[in-house]
Amino acid sequence: MSLAETPSGARDDGELGDAAKLTRKDFESDQDVRWCPGCGDYAILAQVQKLMPELAVARENTVFVSGIGCSSRFPYYMNTYGFHGIHGRAPALATGLKLARPELSVWIVTGDGDGLSIGGNHLIHLLRRNLDVNVLLFNNEIYGLTKGQYSPTSRQGLVTKSSPLGVVDPPFDVASLALGAGATFIARTVDVESRHMLEVLRRAALHKGTSFVEIVQNCPVFNDGVHEELTDRAIKNDHQLLLEHGKPLLFGEGLRKGIRLRADLSPEVVSLDEVDIGQIALHDETSPVMTQLLARLGRQGLPMPLGVLRCVAGVPRYEQAVRAQVVEARAAKGAGDFDALFRSGETWTVG
Fold first, then answer.
1. N or C: which end of the chain has fewer CB within 10 A?
2. Which residues, other chains included, contact 337 with Cβ-Cβ below 8 Å and sequence gap of 6+?
3. Which CATH number is associated with domain 3-231+316-330?
4. Sequence ranges of the domains in the chain
5. What global pTM score does this model have?
6. Distances in Å between the alpha carbon of 337 and those of 192, 330, 333?
7. What is the pLDDT of residues 129-177, one digit of tens each?
8. How many angstroms from the chain centroid is the CA of residue 246?
9. Taking a C-beta distance cutoff of 8 angstroms, is the pair 215, 138 a contact?
10. Which pLDDT value is given to residue 345?
11. Using CA atoms, how far apart are residues 103 and 132, in angstroms rounded to an integer?
């Protein structure tokens, strides 16, 4: 495996590298972290900084790219290279960076407004190309930085400054969008579930291709409690469906409830007090049918799937294909002469 195909210092065999040389403190910048008190971004930042040493990738070979929004302050708080771009263009910037420097470990940080509104087109093409980058999409279902307008994931009926009579358009189904774009890794986690988030981020970092992680997150100022069913300890067991490849879809207190598929493949909740566990559907993160079913599950009044919804390996990566084209073209036609190309055709000399 050449340096152009894997991040410097990282392994390409599915194993994390030696974390002895770096610590979490090494990835904390000297900038004051400025998000609103209680914002879920703090928890996400903490887990990302905790993960970085495990990857054993040098800080100078790690880059965080963002667009515009509360989430997009992220690069300032990481002691790595960073690029704070313009609204929605983080995927485009990251694509250019990865093509020019494929050995870098590139992370895109975006939000439901930045990534799914003005940046939606860039995001879907990044996913379909399967560039080897990691996308973290913070989803608080609101525009926070611009003070509380509804976003592409806001729920119908939500009253905001830009929807005073309530949101009328249906929200994006984020995971279904990613699947439709051809994403090879799709996962979901929650800001307050630190252990779960760390494991999901770890899986994302190991994936060879575009990893897309939706992080359900709270905005305490403009959309407080929007994900309360997933975070309230008194009720979250009945609303979280923790996924594990090859294992039955179980949830609830003591894992006594499960998801069974009817003959038409529509899901239904059943109790293990009434049915045998053999009737419970098994999670298969390589199946697009299972991913689509799970992606829509939480929107149907059923528990919200958390974890890795989809992970498929061996899919060609965009940066590899592009660089292979360049090598082939140079072998056939030579390295070329940029100065000659630049001065060819109609040119003028300005005196």
1. C
2. none
3. 3.40.50.970
4. 3-231+316-330
5. 0.90
6. 55, 11, 11
7. 999 999 999 999 999 988 889 999 999 999 999 999 999 999 999 999 9
8. 23
9. yes
10. 81
11. 10
